[in-house]
Structure formats: structure tokens, C-alpha cells
Amino acid sequence: MQAIAFVRNALISPSSLRARIIRGSFWSFVGSSISYGTAFGASLLCAQMLGKSGFGELSMVRNTISTIGIFAGLGLGLTATKYIAEHREKNPERTTRIIQLCLLSAFVSGVVIALLLALGAPFIASNLLAAPQLTSSLFIGSLLLLVYAYDGTQKGILAGFEAYRRTAVIYGVGGILTFVLVIFGTWLWAVNGALIGFLLSAIIVLLLNNHAIRIERKLHEIPREAGSAWLERGMLTAFSLPALLSSMIVGI
Hints:
By secondary structure, the chain is mainly alpha-helical. The protein is built from seven helices and no strands.
């Protein structure tokens, strides 16, 4: 009973660092459980609908996107979390510049990597995956990669604001949308339909993230403009690059 009371008080009390850590861990667990649970359920149904061959093709495309997505993300999610958490209270103007630079960098890197994937889709499908029929799937995957790169940075920004409960709600909504849209897309257009389902749900989550960020900026009194975001470029080499290298090592 004491343990239950401790956790309950930690979830309610806004004061101590320990309480903040427990609240963050709790809501992260809730959101991730819903998100991964619905994704797992969607995968099981997709496997039944597509069969071994079709589901294998879907898995190859998604694994390709995940691998290349490490480079598109540039470690910006972790960068945003660290620097926003550090400066959101004592330096709102710098926080604005950090948010702007992280989002802009995520968009530019996502566009560049997505274009490379789209242009290289015929070669990757034919020579690396030995499945030329997946060229169109990789085109769709390039758009998905762009959205995922931007989404990862948005999630990092929300984590920097400690908006874990809000993020958990978005995870939950996104998980349900993914389940419905992926199954419906698979039923209509097989592998490409499943990817379109992932893409549509990811775009909706992107919009929800953007709305949540606006709310957090208002709550923390973070201004809309605060000079050139390029003033904060030092954090890209000081933190983003090492974070990217760490992600690459873990990915390998």
C-alpha cells in the first residue's frame, strides 16, 4: 500500500525531481504500450492478409526506412530534449531558437535523405533487396521517412518540456489510427496500401505534435520569435553529431 501511495503522490505532485521522473516514466510506458501494442496487432493482421511473401516485402521496406532514418534524424530528438529542458525556464528566447533550429534541421535532413531514397529506389529494390516490384513501395517509404524524421524531433521537443502525459495521449491516438488505416490500406492495396496507412497516421500524429508544441510553448511563455535560429548552431556539432553516431552504433 505504501508503494501504491508513493506512486500516486508522485504522479500528482509537481515538485520533486523524483516525482517528475516517475511521472515521465509512467506516461512514457502508457503511451509506448498502446503504440507498440496496436502496431503489433496490425502486424499480425497484415501477416494474415498479405501472406509470407507480401509481409516479407513490407518488412523489408520498413526495415530499410528504419535504417536510413537514423541518418535523417541527425540525433535532433535527443538534442531538443537536452537543450530545451536546460533552457526553457531561464532563457525562453534561446529555447525558441533551439526549437526553430531543430525543426528546420529535421526538415532539411529529412527532405535530403527522402530524395536520395526516392531517387535510389529502383537500384535499392533491384540490387539490394532483389525485389524490383518494391520500387513503388520505396517511393512511398521515402515520404514516410521524411515524416518520421520530423516526428522524432517533435517528440524530443515535447520531452524537453516534460509533456509526457500529452505525448502519451498522442501515442495512443496514433496507435489506434495506425491500426485502422494500415489494416484498411492492406485490404485495398496490399503492401503499398499498408505503407500508405502508416504514412497517413504518421501525418496526423505530426499535426497533433505540432498542436501540442504550441500549447507547451504558451504554457512556458516561450516567444514565437527570438532572433536567428542559426545562433544555436553550435549544439549541432557539440551534441547532435555525437548523438547521431551513438544511434548508428546501436543500430548496427
